Amino acid sequence: MRILVTNDDGWDAPGLATLKSLAGRIGDVLVVAPQDPHSYAGHRVTTDCPLVLTETGTQEFTLSGTPADCVRLAVSTLFPDIDWVFSGINRGGNLGADLFTSATVAAVREAALLGRPGIAVSQYVRKGVALDWDLSAEMALPVIAQLIAEGCPSKGYWNVNLPHLDVDKNDARESPAVVRCDPDNEPLDVRFRREGNCFHYAGSYPGRRKTPGRDVEHCFSGSITVSCLQLE
């Protein structure tokens, strides 16, 4: 199995290193990751200037473009025999309304458009709690293995969010539940603080509204959430 790995936090992000290692336990890994971070870039693509590809290792490259650009170039030109596309592990959740701005999710959405199955993986982060990437990999591996076994429906892709467990408080003593659910359709906490003519975003990510039974509520409560998304 040949797996393309990309992300939106940039080629040197610890979440990408974690996903590369995890993917290597499943198949042959090829990496095309953005040279720079592209968080909140959504499904932006580059068509008005050249994309610069730089080799950083065996079957590993950085690209002067977005995550969607990375998938486009890899699938169409560099590695047309790719079987799966993995995106992440993003530092921060991609739940509910986040799907519209997430470049992590956009990478696997682009894969679905090009006829490849994909899995986006994100790690929800709680302020003031240490993040253990090895634990993230431990949580993600069996979920990814199960999704690969199931495959993707035509024009479909998977979105996985990992809860932020507090190891110091023994949150990780038992494996978290894996919940299949729909993305929340409530808006983020949209508030701004004004300073003269400048407006600073002042919303609280954990303070967002939560629809019972959907991904935000479940992930914030300590479960791994899995959503199957579909191109209409």
Under the CATH scheme, the architecture is 3-Layer(aba) Sandwich
SSE run: EHEEEHEHEHEEEEHE
**Taking strands numbered 1, 2, ... along the chain, how are they ordered across the largest sheet?**
3-4-2-1-5-6-7-11-8
- CATH homologous superfamily, by name? Survival protein SurE-like phosphatase/nucleotidase
Gross morphology:
globular
How many strands, what sense, and barrel or not for the largest sheet? 9 strands, mixed
| CATH level 3 topology | Stationary-phase Survival Protein Sure Homolog, Chain: A
Q: Stretches where pLDDT falls below 50 for ≥5 residues?
A: none
Average of pLDDT = 96
Supply Rg: 17 Å
Structural class: alpha/beta
- Our estimate of the beta-strand percent is 25-35%
Number of helices: 5
Number of strands: 11
The helicity comes to 25-40%
Quickly list its features.
single chain, 232 residues, alpha/beta, Stationary-phase Survival Protein Sure Homolog, Chain: A, nine-stranded mixed beta sheet, two-stranded antiparallel ribbon, globular
Describe the structure.
The protein has helices at 14-24, 67-78, 103-113, 133-150, 215-220, and strands at residues 2-6, 28-34, 53-57, 60-63, 84-91, 118-123, 156-162, 178-180, 192-195, 198-201, 224-230. The protein has five helices and eleven strands. The model has no long low-confidence stretch (mean pLDDT 96). A nine-stranded mixed beta sheet has the order 3-4-2-1-5-6-7-11-8, with helices on both faces. The protein starts with a strand and ends with a strand. With 232 residues, it is of the alpha/beta class. The chain has a single domain (2-230), classed as Stationary-phase Survival Protein Sure Homolog, Chain: A (3-Layer(aba) Sandwich). The longest helix is centred in the middle third of the chain and has 18 residues, at 133-150.
